[in-house]
Amino acid sequence: MWPLVAALLLGSACCGSAQLIFNKTKSVEFTFCNETVVIPCFVKNVEAVGTMEMYVKWRFKGKYIFIYDGGQNKSTAENDFSSAKIAVSELLKGDASLKMDKRDAVLGNYTCEVTELSREGETTVELKYRVVSWFSPNENILIVIFPILAILLFWGQFGILTLKYKSNRTNKKIILLLIAGLLLTVIVIVGAILFVPGEYSIKNASGLGFIVISTGILISLQYNVFMTAFGMTSFTVAILITQVLGYVLAVVGLCLCIMACVPVHGPLLISGLGIIALAELLGLVYMKFVASNQKTIQPPRKAVEEPLNAFKESKGMMNDE
Length: 321
Ligand SMILES: *[C@@H]1O[C@H](CO)[C@@H](O)[C@H](O)[C@H]1NC(C)=O
Ligand SMILES: *[C@@H]1O[C@H](CO)[C@@H](O)[C@H](O)[C@H]1NC(C)=O
Ligand SMILES: *[C@@H]1O[C@H](CO)[C@@H](O)[C@H](O)[C@H]1NC(C)=O
Ligand SMILES: *[C@@H]1O[C@H](CO)[C@@H](O)[C@H](O)[C@H]1NC(C)=O
Hints:
Elements (H helix, E strand, L loop, with lengths): L1 H15 L5 E2 L3 E4 L5 E4 L2 E2 L10 E7 L2 E7 L4 E4 L20 E4 L6 E9 L2 E11 L7 H28 L3 H27 L7 H13 L1 H14 L4 H26 L6 H31 L3 H15 L7
Parallel strand pairs: 2-10
Antiparallel strand pairs: 1-4, 3-8, 5-6, 5-9, 6-7, 9-10
Helix pairs in contact: 2-3, 2-5, 2-7, 3-4, 3-5, 4-6, 5-6, 5-7, 6-7
Bound molecules: 2-acetamido-2-deoxy-beta-D-glucopyranose (4 copies).
């Protein structure tokens, strides 16, 4: 008889003081992109049949910041953590996780205390912040490199234009192209300075906006370079269409990247910028090609000059020039 009582007493002693067991999580992280923050607290061995048997308290730096009193079915949150709440409907499944808005999320150790009738337990989770760059380092480089490359190629076209096609008729156009080109260069440099690698911010989003939107000026510049040099050919039309498509891709990519906190559409934006630069390169190569062709296939004027030169040469008059 006595051993049995002893066993019962021992048993009740063991189970009466039984602790609630938690799924331990050492820490959780949030980033710029989390709008709400969830600090996990899972009890594995809930036995309560109703939430009125449960009592949940969340502690931060020795102060209770949130209390759920199951008996009264009432939640109370501290002023600094006014958005804090738990999902009462999940409580019987053991989930006492604390949810709050990011603005209330102070970094540090949060302790979850759960009481269920006579059983209780607690667990501590550290809330951490992780800085996540908006774009990856490689994406950052490409986003800046492609527009700068495209601008350098434009200056190459501009150089050919001034060297090979200069005439009084085109001077005014060349000055306008120069001004527009300088303007574009300045905008893209300012954009690249604002677009420093780092977390999403208004500053680097506007930097990206400057860079991408202003590359549209290149289309108009390239069109004017072609028109000033030799007018439209089917090849220059194809180059310009390619560039417009690249620009559309880049702008769509820009909108998608700015709308989403995690820019999954970075590759779309970058391929758009790459196509713009490629079209600029094709334009330069084509201009160079046309310019060198024009040297060999000469206009009629030369046909008169050549016999004249031959005549002068035969008379030994070349030295007089
Ligand atoms: C606790 O963790 C175990 C595995 O470690 C998992 O199977 C279980 O679903 C978790 N419980 C809760 C409530 O998350
Ligand atoms: C932040 O968001 C990520 C992705 O949605 C999620 O996995 C993570 O648990 C969140 N962090 C916190 C502390 O809520
Ligand atoms: C507790 O109150 C909420 C509304 O505040 C209600 O939806 C829920 O059913 C109540 N739970 C119990 C057990 O009374
Ligand atoms: C949280 O607790 C852990 C472990 O006890 C400790 O290493 C860490 O420094 C604490 N964090 C803060 C912000 O107090």
